[in-house]
Request: fold
Amino acid sequence: KFATVSAMVKAIRVHEVGGPEVLKWEDVEIGDPKDGEIKVRNKAIGLNFIDIYFRTGVYKAAAVPFIPGMEAVGVVTAVGPGLTGRQIGDIVAYAGNPMGAYAEEQILPADKVVPVPSSIDPIVAASIMLKGMTAQYLLRRSFKVERGHTILVHAAAGGVGSLMCQWANALGAIVIGTVSTEEKAAQAKEDGCHHVIITKHENFVERVTDITSGEGVEVVYDSVGKDTFEGSLACLKFRGYLVSFGQASGAPDPIPLSALAAKSLFLTRPSLMHYTAKRDELLETAGEVFANVANGVLRVRVNHKYPLSQAAQAHSDLENRKTTGSIVLIPDG
Ligand code: NDP
Reply:
């Protein structure tokens, strides 16, 4: 019922930022849960592009060494003193803060986890907590996609992109996606992209102009950043929205306000954390994602599984654009 004796667990740790080789497989002591905390034995860990930003130092971790990872599903193995509402044996998921998911076990604040419905496989849950909740707030809250809107989604075959295309299609939007290869284009089509632009061969601004008969799109969801930002602005119609939510190719260059004034545009640079900071927002957002898995709106693509100890290979594949859909790391895989 209360804290167990702490023991060493295996985890991936970063002592200095750099390439995938800085991800070290080590024994670490994670301690016992304190007030308001639980200990979770992870069954599956979601790999996200943000893990690469932290590994390379683009985003700064609070301290080194650190255990990366911001998404996992596992079973509660201990609860902090006096904690109610969570029990040993519960299957729970979390996404976002705190870092530390690349470990066999981790300590989490109890108010950051959500229960996983028994109908959803833990590996599936670990593939959609962070990416699915991101798709939810991007499509429903940062800009509210309605039936008949035309939207542009960059990296349409990626983890977040695949879920966004399926969800936006179900909302009745006309979905234009960009991808780098023919294989990725085939997946994006299956996911409900009405028009797929292969950036290796085509200029996406020209194609969007063509597809929309010169009018432009209501919203661009841009997670690529540096390479696409300017073109994304060019794809917008009057009073369009640019939702710049990532920087896989690097941080976008600064723009003058006059770039927005040219078409009365809106620009936002949102973060999942700010859309799930309150407990009720977290539960509602995760609940909507789980419901959309259960009702078939979202077909989860768990396209890549790696043993946790092989996290470096997984990072290398993700940053070299070799992956599609979601990637999970399995602690005992
Ligand atoms: P993805 O699976 O989408 O992988 C990134 C994809 O970006 C690649 O597969 C690639 O697709 C494309 N890409 C374009 N240029 C580059 C480049 N130079 N280097 C690497 N990839 C490139 O990753 P995730 O689903 O984990 O994340 C998608 C994006 O969403 C990331 O930018 C991430 O930071 C962001 N994000 C933001 C959140 C927020 O709240 N702000 C929350 C969650 C994710 P292709 O080859 O088809 O171009």
The CA atoms of residues 14 and 65 lie 5 Å apart. The chain has a mean pLDDT of 96. The pocket of NDP is lined by residues 48-50, 130-131, 134, 155, 157-161, 179-180, 184, 223-224, 227, 245-249, 270-272, 318-319, 321, 323 (CB under 6 Å). The first strand starts at residue 8 and ends at 14.
